[in-house]
Specification:
single chain; alpha/beta; eight-stranded mixed β-sheet; 9 helices; globular
Length: 248
């Protein structure tokens, strides 16, 4: 019997979470507490819809012709997908047997331990690409905005880079919170460190948006960043220029 995962939602024909047309599987459960989270209902662990690997693969294979035509595949996001490592390993193993491109969209939200490292090693053997979200380098700022320290997240990035897995580094630009010039430059230095093996393929700078605010309201919760504005095009360009120096 195939392993069972806890699923938050599914999106078909995604085109922003990896190359080509993607089948996006959002897994349930997260260890981070981002104040600007747009999937607030994905935090609870061991909740969501239970689906087997076979269930998901059946759905994924319906879109094979679109993957083949566009260079796409499956992207597993969250929540934090690495919470469900055994399930993710079996899913990606099944996908690779079908020659489907596999991508993980993660915030690096689990710690490296004697238990998780062998599982991560196994997972990365079936992983074509990792999208890694580096929210902030400053530990205090990260704890305030994200709710947890960032030491394990930075360690996860190094682990993935050392494994030789291709990386896209992502940064959400929240004006006044994640766009500090010194922090962006420190992030660029971190990217340069990760890229010593030449595995960082791309840097994506993503604008903050309040589209998840309604989900907080539906849960009876106050949105922590109410009134927060989106970044200007100039702010986005400045952040992108600084971060891309990490690839020079």
């Amino acid at each position: 019997m195939s392993k069972v995962g806890h699923v938050h939602s599914i999106e078909t024909f995604g085109n922003v979470d990896g190359p080509g047309i993607r089948f996006i599987l959002f897994l349930q459960g997260c260890t981070l507490r981002c104040k600007y989270c747009h999937n607030r209902d994905s935090w609870k662990i061991n909740a969501g819809k239970e689906m087997t690997v076979d269930d998901i693969l059946t759905e994924v294979l319906k879109y094979r012709e679109f993957f083949d035509a566009s260079g796409g595949g499956i992207t597993v996001s969250g929540g934090e997908p690495l919470i469900q490592l055994p399930f993710l390993i079996e899913l990606f193993k099944a996908c690779k047997k079908e020659e489907i491109h596999t991508t993980i969209d993660t915030s690096g939200g689990i710690r490296l331990t004697n238990r998780t490292e062998p599982l991560l090693d196994a997972l990365l053997t079936y992983t074509d690409l990792v999208l890694l979200d580096i929210k902030l380098m400053d530990p205090a700022g990260h704890k305030s905005l994200i709710g947890v320290p960032n030491d394990h997240i930075l360690a996860m990035g190094r682990f993935i880079a050392d494994a030789g897995t291709p990386l896209w580094i992502r940064r959400v630009i929240v004006p006044g919170l994640t766009d500090d010039e010194a922090d962006l430059k420190e992030t660029a230095d971190y990217i340069k460190e990760l890229n010593q093996r030449g595995t960082v393929e791309k840097i994506e700078v993503l604008p903050y948006h309040p589209m998840g605010e309604h989900k907080w309201a539906e849960l009876g919760l106050e949105y922590p960043l109410k009134g927060q504005r989106a970044p200007t095009s100039e702010e986005m360009e400045k952040a992108e220029t600084i971060l891309k120096a990490g690839l020079e």
